[in-house]
Amino acid sequence: MRKTIGQLVAALGRSKGKKGILAVGGAICLAAWATFAISVAFGVGTGARIALLSVALVATEVLFWVAAALLGITVVQLRRKLLGKLLPGRRGDAA
């Protein structure tokens, strides 16, 4: 079953709890990336930068999975669709 963006937005709008969860997850993800950017600007050590980058990447991945689960999209379908758009020549998934 394919859902359009409008249907997903409408489903998210009906549930205040889902919005809250995504807002908190987005804030955590944004804070992780901001911390990494600040560490680059101030020139902290390589080990600390790698650790902060790892935290930011994991936070982004978790946010992606949580958003897909909350919106009722199969994670595999969403990931395939996104990768198909990013890499259209590699697979037959791009639509």
In short:
By secondary structure, the protein is mainly α.
How is this structure best described in words?
- This protein is mainly α and 95 residues long.
- Helix content is 79%, strand content 0%.
- The chain has four helices and no strands.
- It has helices at 5-14, 16-42, 46-71, 75-86.
- The protein is flat.
- pLDDT averaged over residues: 79
Whole-Å distance between the termini?
Answer: 16 Å
Approximate helicity band: over 70%
List how many beta strands DSSP finds: 0
Structural class by SSE content: mainly alpha
The largest pleated sheet is described as: none
Order of helices and strands: HHHH
The general outline is: flat
Low-confidence stretches: none
Radius of gyration: 16 Å
Please, how many helices? 4
In terms of DSSP E residues, the strand content is under 5%
